[in-house]
Fold each of these.
Amino acid sequence: MTDQARTLIEAARDAAKNAYAPYSNFAVGAAVLLGDGTVVTGANFENASYGLSLCAETVALATVNAQGRFRDVVAIGVIGGRIGHADTAPVSPCGRCRQIINEAAQLGGCDLPVYCGGATGDRIATYKLSELLPHAFGPADLGLVDR
Ligand code: THU
């Protein structure tokens, strides 16, 4: 595992401790690395209405944006697992989160690395966003950034 991957997976695991996931009992943490080395985290945030639940990646990226840093994302780590289990299988971002990560990727002009891990263990799957969301539609299609 690279140092960058390890840093983000560990930060995502810390964040997952604060997951609000009483319905799924599945805790997810995300950690976003910015260009200056800052790491911004998020955890999934569920709701009694179920459908209004927010994923960890979305929470983390919205926080990055609230700090005025949405164009400065360089990598993201995601972990997840069932609460009370020592799950080791890497969790990769859901489809909606891939689209939201793509917003940051295109704005920043970077095919972001996405490190995926389980709640525990050394199994890490590393992807480029373009592998997770090929032929993405995004801000470049709307002329917001150059291709
Ligand atoms: N979840 C995330 O936080 N990120 C993902 O990419 C996949 C799913 C959350 C949503 C819900 O709170 C729980 O995991 C089970 O789906």
Amino acid sequence: MTDHILIERAGDAGAVNVIRFNRPDKKNAITRAMYAAMASALADGEADPAVRVHVILGTPGAFSSGNDMQDFMAVAMGAATGSEVSDFLMALASLAKPIVSGVDGLAIGIGTTIHMHCDLTFATPGSRFHTPFVDLALVPEAGSSLLAPAVMGHQKAFALLCAGLPVSGEEAERTGLIYKTVSADELEAEVFAAADHLAQKPPKALALARRLLKPDPDLVAARIREEGELFAAQLKSAEALAAFQAFMARKK
Ligand code: COA
């Protein structure tokens, strides 16, 4: 259990399953407990016939700063293991119901790649999508190595995922990484209006239509596993440990 993830049902008859990051003092960095809470919230929403749509939101100024660095460090040093991250990724990649997300500010690492599984992402123009995987001696995850080139083309995907170049909300909209930029004042209203709109659709037809548009879920799951193996090996490398230690020591 963690209060760093808040779960609620919104919309008519609780049709909207809302997952909200609630760790603003750490820019919503995601711990293993938070991944576990999100995986179980998605599974609960998928199993509940009243739920028609999932929504995922951050806090003002930060959607998420990505995987918790302390957790990375613990795994790198062999002090922690666990399936929470892959449980969450597999739950996300296998959703039958649509998912809408809203971003204001930082969207780092998995804070960016989550949206590649979303159907409608709204973000403020100044949001910052950034995946410094290679700078941390890691590799892209969450199926992003398959999904991003399909959406943005190789060069934009390479710039984001390999060169680690940040992308603003405006550029994310231009490249097709997100659906639409909106002002910070409008963000939540737009996200919930989109969720309510989808919740009114015939659910089976919507699930079928969504499935037809998305890449084969087996291929995505296979890529997530392949990335995960490389990521896990890199996580234990000396170059990754040095990058995590540099982050920890940056304020000293
Ligand atoms: N894991 C753990 N803690 C994190 C974190 C992360 N991914 N990102 C931020 N935090 C913590 C900071 O340690 C700091 O905690 P403190 O106040 O106890 O020192 C707090 O959140 C605020 O971060 P800070 O760095 O002071 O804010 P900033 O506005 O100067 O920078 C970031 C924000 C997100 C740009 C910067 O913290 C950062 O680069 N974080 C790492 C992001 C990352 O590489 N994630 C993994 C991607 S694979």
